[in-house]
Amino acid sequence: MDKKTVGLSDTFKGKMSPKNFTKNHIKGTKFTIAVSSAKGGVGKSTFAMNLALALKFINHEVGILDADIYGPSLPKMMSINEKPKSEDGKSLTPIKQYGIQCMSIGFLVDEETPMIWRGPMVTSAIKTFTQKVLWNNLDFLVVDMPPGTGDTQLTFAQEIKVDGVVIISTPQEIALLDVKRGIKMFDKLKVPILGLVDNMSSFEGEDGKNYNIFGEGGVERVAIDYKKKLLGKIPLNIDLRVAADSGKPLVKINPDHKISKIFIEIAKKIKESFL
Ligand code: ADP
Questions:
Q1: I need a labelling partner for 207 at 20 to 30 A (CA). Which of 33, 83, 91, 242 fits?
Q2: 44 C-beta closer than 6 A to ligand 1
């Protein structure tokens, strides 16, 4: 019996290959840095807020764009209850908090309203947030992306000139699989990966011992395998969690804390990639 091979036709393959998009620079900022994670709940937003404050701490003008359309955390994590103003009815002025220019979809909707949006709406919201916000003379715009490899990431990577992405993960195997997918996506979309961050890397007990709750060294191994930098390891720490939940990020209220120092070190490494 003849064996038939099944494969994609050349026309279909052509349709699947990445197109050449014109990437627009976000006005009002020198560098756009995306903070991404393959999974939810790994500490991406906590990282993004503290990174922004760490970049501010080393004397840069910084903005945060909360592009996590489905679960915006910026209003709570930065204690912002007001709505952004629009002078001309077309553009939005960011809200300044702790010296950082902030914008979030969460400013425009009720805290408990679920964002049941389809792809095209997400795409148009991202366009508004990247083209209609009056960022003022920023060195760095930190973008808190939604988790995964969906519409927002694609819209961003294809249409916006993202200067670099930081990928956050916890070290357990199930999260690492998705990290590998994330790395491949950004490599394919030609977005430079600044490095990986291992969050919740270990927990220091009251006995002073370190416990590797989610396993050990997983993110570092992926970084080595994929020839990416490991920017830092952030342990599980109650002060970081309490600060984030109370709307006053740890780097803001206690820059001398050992965890804040890790964020500041990561901020310096990121700055060195550009300046
Ligand atoms: P994501 O944006 O990935 O969904 P969040 O930043 O919202 O995750 O973090 C989820 C929860 O974990 C928050 O309550 C946050 O305070 C907490 N958290 C994040 N990183 C740490 C850490 N290193 N130590 C302790 N708690 C953390």
A1: 242
A2: yes
